[in-house]
Amino acid sequence: MIAGVREECMVPMVKKKAPRKRIAAKHETSVLVKSARRCMLCFHLNGDLTEKHGQIAHLDGNRSNHAEANLGFICLPHHSVFDSTTRQHKNYTVNELKRLRAKLYKAIAERKHIAASAATPGRKADRATLAALVELMGRNGCMDWLRGANFAGWSFDWKRLDGVEEFVSRKGPQYEFIDRDVEKLRMVLDDASRRLITLLATETFPVGNGDRQGIPEEWEVEQPERFKKAVEAIHAAADKVCGSYDKLVRTARKKFSP
């Protein structure tokens, strides 16, 4: 040791890195307001306009480039994917992200996120209404049976219609859809179901001592026109019930999907 020199003075000096500059407050605020804290990737991939916990990402990957044109709001899960350095997938490009950001900003400017948020509670209730309807119309294999039922000279067990019969008997808003388009389809199904039940009640009669019903066989010989008219009317009504039910379910699933 050199005489007169303190030991601690021999420790080499380590130069500290300059702290990384923060994003300017005006740019940060602008991005948060324009995005309304909605993730551009959630919107692009899933149509999701709900508010997210996220971060402001540097689109070109350069964390010192704080220009607003290089910034975008991304949720935490997608930000992790965006920052990934794995070579197992093609990551998002800068131009790609800027287009997605523009689409998101346009949707927010048009207040589509407000409509989506307002619709969420109703959509949840309508999902439950749809599930209850599907369960009801599937009771005793009702809809599957009705699709292939032959009423031309064949008797049937009235219990197979339990689902349809209960459907037309239900009253009250708890059985209605909040979505107007789907509710209109429910009303079409209701009318078709009432028409079918009425026809079966007036054009078929008990067979034997059980619950079976059928169009009288003697009509085919004694009143062929009446027999033909009854068969055609019942088959058309059954087809209408099945068709309106299918349209309702397909439309509702598309609208109420998460």
Overview of the molecule:
- It is a single chain.
- It contains 10 helices and 5 strands; from the N terminus they run H-H-E-E-H-H-H-H-E-H-H-E-E-H-H.
- The protein is mostly helical and 258 residues long.
- Strand 4 and strand 5 (212-214) form a beta hairpin.
- Helix 5 (112-137) packs across helix 10 (224-256) and helix 8 runs antiparallel to helix 10 (224-256).
Spatial strand order of the main sheet? 3-5-4
Strand content: 5-15%
pLDDT < 50 runs, ≥5 residues = 1-11
> How would a textbook summarize the main sheet?
3 strands, antiparallel
Overall shape: it is rod-shaped
The N- and C-terminal alpha carbons lie at a distance of: 73 Å
Question: How many distinct helices?
Answer: 10
Secondary structure category: mainly alpha
Please provide the ordered H/E string of secondary-structure elements. Answer: HHEEHHHHEHHEEHH
Instruction: Name the average pLDDT.
Output: 86
Q: Using only CA atoms, what is the Rg?
A: 33 Å
Helix content: 55-70%
- By DSSP, the count of extended strands is 5
Question: Characteristics of this structure?
Answer:
56% helix; 7% strand; mainly alpha; 258 residues; two-stranded antiparallel ribbon
